[in-house]
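Async update (no meeting this week)

Hi team, since we skipped the sync, here's where things stand on the single-chain job. The sequence we agreed to prioritize is pasted below, unchanged from the tracker. I ran it this morning and attached the output directly underneath so nobody has to dig for it. Comments welcome in thread, and please keep replies under the output.
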Amino acid sequence: MRNERGITLTELLVAVGISAGFVAAMAGLMSMMFSDLKFGNVSLGFAQDRTVLQKVLLRRLTMSNIHSFALTDSAVDGDTHARSIAILPSFCADRTSGPECAQSTMLQFNSVDHSNGIPVAAYCWDQVASVLVVDVSVVNLLAAPGDTQDIVGVIAPPIMTSWRVTAVSTLNLTDVNTGAPLSAQCQSKIPREPSGQIDQNKFRKITIIPITLKGNAPVASAAQQIRYNEVFPQRVTRLNSYSAGLVRSSTNSQRMNFVIYSCSFSNAAGYACGNTAPLATIEHIRGNYIIERFRTRMPAKPQTVDYQITGAEIERRPSCVPPKCDALPVVNHTNVPYRTSTNETPETLDASQFSLIKQEVLGGLSLILVDRDDKEQVIHFSFD
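Output:
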């Protein structure tokens, strides 16, 4: 039977069937496209987070050729300083070391606070009072007299030593002859007005104590650290401290995220990290690991280029394969040695374990992030 246009019922049914098949096929194709798009968005999100993370670390970790140093916790042969790039296997970014931190390698470091402007001049060091006299006429280094929340760096290129500010006061000069309350030697180095007088409003006295790598109360006097800064004037700048590693997700107790925290300081607990929102976050990270490359080859392993910093619980990554890459264990987290023996120098590094002297010839650092599918994402940083 044909209709007025000459189309049979059979032809019409066939046409409808073909159209339905076409629609179903298009629906399946669109479903696949949206599925791919959704997957693409997830990948793009990770890529964006990775880019943010890399920028945050690049700006703070490799910002200049000035290297931040702090006191070690135990001196060997008079060496009291080590570079302030502390690596702690099996520690989370908030400096805790519970079971959830087993595959987290925390990175702690200092960086110059660029928001504070240019460094200011420090004109003298009064060893008796443990104070620096700094110029605040150009930029206010510290918020106000009485401010004790600052970490500062005293710069003697290429070294910048780290200090905790315990008091800030106006420059109060009394008797130049007796040196009270500031020594005559110190006063003699402070710039004077054309009249020959010192404008006390242009300067501050900041009382400082050295900071150890752990951030706890110092075990050595400030005089031991100031030896790097014997020639004045020096530059002084505000420092920020950061930590990077894993923390448990606040929205999913079964998930770990990789974060970068800004850290504060307290006399009682040392560095406190994680009290504020992270500067960068990557979600769903199963573990993070650190590989270091040194500018000096170790005599015992001349072919080895990279070393993964490991600990009692940190697993050796399959991508770190001898002889090009090998493990460098942190034997004792509570007392990382400055050198493994009196024979270890920056030119003759010991490959048996991690030591702080190796950081002085740190040429590069690789941050490995392992996702829940055990896939690695690697971010490289160069210190050369």
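Quick observations from my side:
Confidence is low (pLDDT under 50) at residues 29-44, 143-147.
Helices lie at 9-61, 184-187, 222-225.
Reply here if anything looks off.
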